[in-house]
Specification:
The protein has 102 residues and is α+β, with helices and mostly antiparallel strands. It contains two helices and five strands. The protein has a five-stranded antiparallel beta sheet, covered by helices on one side. Helix 1 packs across helix 2.
């Protein structure tokens, strides 16, 4: 069992001001940074959801996948996250951040 959240991304028109089509998606890197954390205390889907919800609130986070059976939380973000911000989110959810997973 795992919980995953996707943070909605802003979308815009694919048309340029000159009226031509422009596929700008190749220039945008969504979730450019991925980090895996070890979290202590997750036992079920509710735990996974609580952690995913709190971490998703950190600015720049694009997705979170928490897996209770391994205690691992995979976070994709636009830029590297400060570990203290992740720790605060995990604490707020009621769990303990052990650190980054090896």
């Amino acid at each position: 069992m795992s919980a995953e959240t996707q943070t909605p991304q802003a979308t815009g028109s694919c048309c340029t001001p000159a009226g031509t089509c422009n596929d700008a998606t190749s220039d945008v890197q969504v979730g450019a940074v991925t980090a895996v954390y070890q979290v202590k205390g997750m036992t079920c889907g509710h735990c996974e959801g609580s952690i995913a919800e709190e971490i998703s609130g950190i600015e720049g986070v694009t997705s979170v996948k928490a897996v209770a059976s391994t205690g691992r939380v995979t976070v994709s973000s636009l830029a590297p996250l400060a570990e203290d911000a992740v720790r605060a989110a995990v604490d707020e959810a009621g769990y303990e951040l052990v650190g980054t997973a090896a």
